[in-house]
Structures are given as structure tokens and as C-alpha cells.
Amino acid sequence: MTVLSLAIFFTLGLGVGAAPRRPHGKTSSPIKNVVVLVQENLSFDNYAGGLTYNPNIDGLVHREYCNPANISDPHSAMVCAQPIAKNVAADDPDHSITGGNQQVYSTYHPDYEANSPGMQGFIAEQIAAYGIMGDLSRAAEVINYYTPEHVPVFNAMAQNFVLFDRWFAAVPGPTNPNRAYLTSGTSHGHGTNDGDFLTSSLPQRSIFEQLSANGISWINYSNTTDFLPDALFYSWTAKSGLGETNVRPVDQFYRDAQAGALPQFTWINPECCSYMSFHPPSPINMGEGWIKSVYEALRSSPQWNETLFVLTFDEHGGFADHVSPPENVPPGDDLTYTETARDGKASTFAFDRLGIRVPTVLMSPWVGKGVVQNKPSGQPGEFTHTSILKYVADLWGLEYLSPRVEWSASFEDLITDTFRDDTPERLPEPADF
């Protein structure tokens, strides 16, 4: 698809009680509107590991990162990351919880005390998933990465705003458990994209219910096809009737942005999973065209001067990353999840480990330019999906929805008191490759 046709295309467009502490709302904050766009299935190294504008980015530039083809063979052939990722990935890598175990620990059944999170199992799991031991170049797609020339839109976002290079998914598993953590601080024991997400069956309190209870406006703009919009995961949304009024098609987002009529909290679902979400087989340049269109709609909106735009990805999608996720973190609740691994044995997960790093950028005229944020300073926890809920709670004086939310690091300190008048009105065109 040409850049011109891309431009035309995108123009048309709780099981657990809340933690007890209630933060004070930030009445003096310049941020009045929070916009969150959650894309699909790319690890940090895969999408952002090739960025070169800042040597402090913890990516793959000047780093040799390799995985063995056979983790049980000490003499195995090694497959090393190369800056030659394809516009359309040939395969959709395994991103189940047990697949993630293998990718991180080189075993489907890790013991945190006995097994090191060496990040050495991505190639082996890709080979096992697709039976391609004889085609290591095909398996290498899971470890290869993009350069700034491949991803000029994201590169420009990162260069102009705040890039997190240590932001972890909430769950080391697939889309919907992560989206549940993103919107409620727990997946209520769900570790896969099961039927409860299609029938509005999650019982926990979500950010959408919480905002409504506190008189804070919100809309979930959605272009979903295979899944319900995130707000409709929850029984409250469906039963309250707000699924009819507060879940709107994505073309309404563009109209509302242009009119200066976005709510205080905007949540955006992309289409999934063929053309705009980045989830294989979505072309990377079409995903870039989509995130460009969202940014430019916000940048040209009368509300831009009071807006914070958070772009993140729900999970790593099975793509490799060299940084091991934190262990022994507070779960959202006391529920566990059990699934059968590829070896036929059951594995139980207690939601006590974060998922693999994903690309995340904060964009606003109130954040610094070209900032690369690694570990949080002056606060416990890590930057992870529930950091968004932590920030929103602190901004508007809401209770933390779960222990995971309370533990998470907030990015509040990255919001400055200096307004920038140099934020780009337009971003580069997506690459053809």
C-alpha cells in the first residue's frame, strides 16, 4: 500500500477491593485530558531496539544478542539479532504464558530460585511452534529488529517526547489478560483470551466504572473486530448501559479531537489483527500510519495544550527482548491461572512476574524532548501497564484499583511545569519496505 493510500485510509476513518490509600488529586496539573492507545504484540527490542538517536537507549545497537536453536544442546547453532525485520512477519510467535516461560527461562515450568531468566528461549520456542528447525532464517524473524529507517513515525515520537526503555507488560502472556490489567489492575485469574472477554463477564471494578463514579468523563473509541472493546470486558459496563453511550467507533475520535470535544479520559482500541495493530500479519508501515494519524489528530486539536498521550503495546507478542522481566511483584489479586504447556504438563502462574518489555512513549507539550526513561527514581516499583492507572489515580484523586497498581511506579514526575511550543505538528510518512 502506498503512503498516499495509507493517508486516505486513516482519514476515513473486582474480585478484590481497592487498596486503601486515596491519593490527593493534582488540581494544579496542566494535564486535563489523558489519551491512551494500546497497540499489539511487539517487544521493545523488536520495535525500538534499533533506535540510534540516543546512545543510552537499552536496545540492540552495538549489542550482540543471540539465542540457541536448541536450548538443550550446548553446541547448538546460535541465531543472532539483525536489523532486518520484515514489514509483515511470516509467523505469529507464541505469546502464551507457558510459551513466555520458555522464552524467558528456557523451560515451560520455571522455578524462580533455580532457573535464571536468561532470555534465551525465543528461537527454540519459535522452532517448536512452527516446526522449522531446518529453517533458521525463518525462525530468526522472532529476534530480528527494526531500524529508524523502518519505523520513522515511532522514531520521531521517541525523539520528540519521552521513551521508556524499561516499561514491562503486566502479564507474560497474551492480549486480553494484559488489557484487563491495563484497565482494572488485574485479569481476575485469566491468563488467556478466553470466552469471558467476549461476553462482558469480568466482575472486577475497572477504570471506566471508577471514573463514572467520580464524575470524570470517558470514552472507549474502538475499531476492534475480533475482540470486544476493552471497556466491554466488564459486566458493569454492559449492565450500566454505558457500553451503548461511551463505546464509540474510532472515526468519532477524529471528529471529537477536531472539535475539542474529547473526554477527560480517552481509551483507544485499534483493529486487530490484520492491518493497523502491528499484530502479525499486520504490516508495520500500516501500524505506523495509524499511530501517526492518532497523534496528528491530537496535535491539531484545541485540547492539545492540556493533553497527555500515552502510546504502549499490550504485550511482546512472542518477539525477543534481552531484558529479563521483574519477578516477585504483587499480583492484582489472589487468583491463579493454569494451562497445559507444549510438553503436555500443567503450569500454574500466580501473576507474580511482569511481562516482557514493550515500547512506550509519553507525548504532551508538558513532557521533555528526547527523554529516555529507564528505571524509576525516588519511588519503588517498575514502569508497567498499571503505571497508567497509578498516574490517573494520582491525577484525579482516585483509589488504587489493586495492589499491583499501588506498587507500580508513576510517571507523574515526567510531567513538567514548562510548556513546549516545539512539538511537531506532523510526523514523517511511514516507510515502504
Automatic annotation (TrEMBL):
<dbReference type="InterPro" id="IPR017850">
    <property type="entry name" value="Alkaline_phosphatase_core_sf"/>
</dbReference>
<dbReference type="GO" id="GO:0009395">
    <property type="term" value="P:phospholipid catabolic process"/>
</dbReference>
<keyword id="KW-0732">Signal</keyword>
<protein>
    <submittedName>
        <fullName>PLC-A</fullName>
    </submittedName>
</protein>
<dbReference type="GO" id="GO:0042578">
    <property type="term" value="F:phosphoric ester hydrolase activity"/>
</dbReference>
<keyword id="KW-0378">Hydrolase</keyword>
<feature type="signal peptide">
    <location>
        <begin position="1"/>
        <end position="18"/>
    </location>
</feature>
<dbReference type="InterPro" id="IPR007312">
    <property type="entry name" value="Phosphoesterase"/>
</dbReference>
<dbReference type="Pfam" id="PF04185">
    <property type="entry name" value="Phosphoesterase"/>
</dbReference>
